[in-house]
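If your schedule permits, I should be very grateful for your opinion on a structural question. Please examine both parts with care and let me know of anything in them that strikes you as inconsistent. The record follows directly beneath this note:
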Amino acid sequence: MRKPRGYTLTEIIVAVAVIAILAAAMTPLIFKQIERSRAARAREDLDVVRAAFTQYYADTQYWPCHWDAATSNNRHGDFTTFRCLYEDDGLNGWDGPYLNESAGKVNGHYRAAARQNGEWTGVVDPWGRPYRVFEANVATTGAEKGTIVLYSRGKNGRVDTADEDLLAGKASGDDIVLLVSRKATDD
């Protein structure tokens, strides 16, 4: 009876090399798919926030936190405070909370996002940063009665999109942009 013969060192090296080549070829595809998934999640998150803004407006006839595009300056900011989406701010018709997710209470009031132990928590993008809000003034942008835009700075963490493109809902680079309203106040 013959003993079974084992694999030679050459056969093992060839098998390991083939596995390494396949892994090297697949890795970029896997990372690309992960980034696509993150971008899709960011779009879904922004849709939820837009729905909260819209419902708040439908209930109170104000955009969150009494922002008025006709009188306000252009503002870019992190989507951090917006406690009016979580707590009754005294407006007639308020029927919130309008968002379920938050960073919890900070200094006695709910916040959409907050930095805790060096990390952002609450309503943050898939890269761990708060979403951004651009509130445009009609007088300085020419936008029809103002515009509210929600966006994420994407993987690179920089705003790659110019204000004019944000107002049109067009993203540049890896930014993800979603218009909330082209008309922020009624006549």
Summary: Residues 9-60 form the longest helix (52 residues).
